[in-house]
Design a protein that fits this description.
- With 71 residues, the protein is an all-alpha fold.
- The radius of gyration is 16 Å and the shape is elongated.
- The longest helix has 19 residues.
- The chain has four helices and no strands.
- This is Transcription and mRNA export factor ENY2.
- Keywords: Activator, Chromatin regulator, mRNA transport, Nucleus, Protein transport, Transcription, Transcription regulation, Translocation, Transport.
Amino acid sequence: MDLLRERLIECGWKDEMKALCRAFMKKKGRSNVTVDDLVHVITPKGRASIPDSIKAELLQRIRAFLVQASV
Protein backbone atom coordinates (compact mmCIF):
# COMPACT_ATOMS: atom_id res chain seq x y z
CA MET A 1 0.00 0.00 0.00
CA ASP A 2 2.87 2.35 0.75
CA LEU A 3 4.39 1.70 -2.66
CA LEU A 4 1.07 2.37 -4.39
CA ARG A 5 0.59 5.59 -2.45
CA GLU A 6 4.13 6.71 -3.29
CA ARG A 7 3.75 5.99 -7.00
CA LEU A 8 0.38 7.75 -7.23
CA ILE A 9 1.80 10.83 -5.56
CA GLU A 10 4.85 10.78 -7.87
CA CYS A 11 2.74 10.71 -11.03
CA GLY A 12 0.39 13.47 -9.88
CA TRP A 13 -2.66 11.23 -9.52
CA LYS A 14 -3.35 12.37 -5.97
CA ASP A 15 -3.32 16.03 -6.96
CA GLU A 16 -5.60 15.27 -9.90
CA MET A 17 -8.13 13.54 -7.63
CA LYS A 18 -7.94 16.41 -5.14
CA ALA A 19 -8.67 18.87 -7.96
CA LEU A 20 -11.65 16.79 -9.12
CA CYS A 21 -13.06 16.76 -5.58
CA ARG A 22 -12.63 20.51 -5.22
CA ALA A 23 -14.25 21.17 -8.59
CA PHE A 24 -17.21 18.94 -7.72
CA MET A 25 -17.64 20.65 -4.35
CA LYS A 26 -17.43 24.09 -5.94
CA LYS A 27 -20.03 23.13 -8.54
CA LYS A 28 -22.50 21.63 -6.06
CA GLY A 29 -21.77 23.87 -3.11
CA ARG A 30 -19.71 22.74 -0.15
CA SER A 31 -22.68 22.28 2.17
CA ASN A 32 -24.57 20.22 -0.44
CA VAL A 33 -21.90 17.52 -0.90
CA THR A 34 -21.51 14.41 1.22
CA VAL A 35 -18.58 12.03 1.36
CA ASP A 36 -20.78 9.45 -0.36
CA ASP A 37 -21.39 11.90 -3.22
CA LEU A 38 -17.64 12.41 -3.65
CA VAL A 39 -16.92 8.68 -3.55
CA HIS A 40 -19.65 7.96 -6.10
CA VAL A 41 -18.39 10.59 -8.54
CA ILE A 42 -14.63 10.32 -8.07
CA THR A 43 -14.10 6.53 -7.71
CA PRO A 44 -14.71 5.60 -11.37
CA LYS A 45 -12.53 8.46 -12.58
CA GLY A 46 -9.82 7.60 -10.07
CA ARG A 47 -9.68 3.94 -10.99
CA ALA A 48 -9.64 4.70 -14.70
CA SER A 49 -6.84 7.23 -14.40
CA ILE A 50 -4.27 5.07 -12.59
CA PRO A 51 -1.35 4.79 -15.02
CA ASP A 52 -0.83 1.37 -16.61
CA SER A 53 2.84 1.45 -15.61
CA ILE A 54 1.88 1.58 -11.93
CA LYS A 55 -0.62 -1.25 -12.35
CA ALA A 56 2.02 -3.36 -14.11
CA GLU A 57 4.65 -2.68 -11.45
CA LEU A 58 2.32 -3.63 -8.62
CA LEU A 59 1.15 -6.75 -10.42
CA GLN A 60 4.76 -7.81 -10.98
CA ARG A 61 5.59 -7.30 -7.30
CA ILE A 62 2.52 -9.24 -6.18
CA ARG A 63 3.40 -12.13 -8.48
CA ALA A 64 7.00 -12.15 -7.24
CA PHE A 65 5.78 -12.18 -3.65
CA LEU A 66 3.41 -15.07 -4.32
CA VAL A 67 6.15 -17.08 -6.03
CA GLN A 68 8.52 -16.44 -3.15
CA ALA A 69 5.84 -17.23 -0.53
CA SER A 70 4.96 -20.54 -2.16
CA VAL A 71 8.55 -21.85 -2.04
